[in-house]
Amino acid sequence: MRYLEVRFSSKTRITAYFRGMKFLIAGLGNIGAEYDATRHNIGFDVADALVLKNKGSFSLDRHAFVSEVKWKGKTFVVIKPTTYMNLSGKAVKYWMDKEKIPMEQMLVVVDELALPLGVLRLRASGSNAGHNGLKSIEESLQTDKYQRLRFGIGNDFPKGMQVQFVLGKWRTEEIPVVKDSILKSVDAIECFASQGLGKAMTFFNK
């Protein structure tokens, strides 16, 4: 619930607090055991970590596995689309409309080849860079001006092997960095919800 606190001092100060704000967090990936723990499914892994931290669980609903969790007066509607990556926009648009969540309170978590493993980048908008999940969201929302958290997966693969790399599982030596980056991603989501995108970018875009 939104409320307004008025404090009086030598000058009247009005401070607005916004409680009960609802956010849509969309972790992108593909359903199916063959895609578990693959680079392309890191969005699902971050969504799982966010929900687990807040003692929630997912249930199958329209176009997605969905969980609703509370954190410091905020509500996170967390989705893992069941539409497969290429139709991610269908699930994102449906849940934005159903929950009446404005664009500025939606964040997409996605794998990013152009960033080294362990690097995170929050962005307010931008090109889909050929990523089918982002391309689908852009088509469904009719804009590229939506927030996204890009999770670096690196590009250490031979020429012509991009698909195999993206759909491949993490190497053993990469797993500690992946786990640490997932935890940082959860922190970044919480910072985005509590302090806004600008502050979150300052803290996490390093």
**How many helical stretches?**
6
* Biggest sheet: strand arrangement: 4-5-6-3-7-9-8
Structural class: alpha/beta
Work out the radius of gyration.
Answer: 18 Å
- The outline comes out as globular
Low-confidence stretches: 1-19
Q: Tell me, rounded to a whole number, the average pLDDT.
A: 91
- The SSE order reads EEEHEEEHEEHEHHH
The main β sheet shows up as: 7 strands, mixed
Question: What percent of residues are in strands?
Answer: 25-35%
Protein architecture, described:
The chain is globular and about 45 Å long. Helix content is 33%, strand content 27%. The chain starts with a strand and ends with a helix. The strands form two sheets. Strands 4-5-6-3-7-9-8 form a seven-stranded mixed beta sheet, with helices on both faces. The chain has a two-stranded antiparallel sheet with strand order 1-2. It has helices at residues 42-53, 88-99, 132-141, 162-166, 175-195, 197-204; strands at 2-8, 12-18, 22-27, 59-61, 64-71, 74-81, 106-112, 120-123, 147-152. The model is unreliable at 1-19 (pLDDT under 50). It has 206 residues and is an alpha/beta fold. A hairpin with a 2-residue loop joins strand 5 (64-71) and strand 6 (74-81).
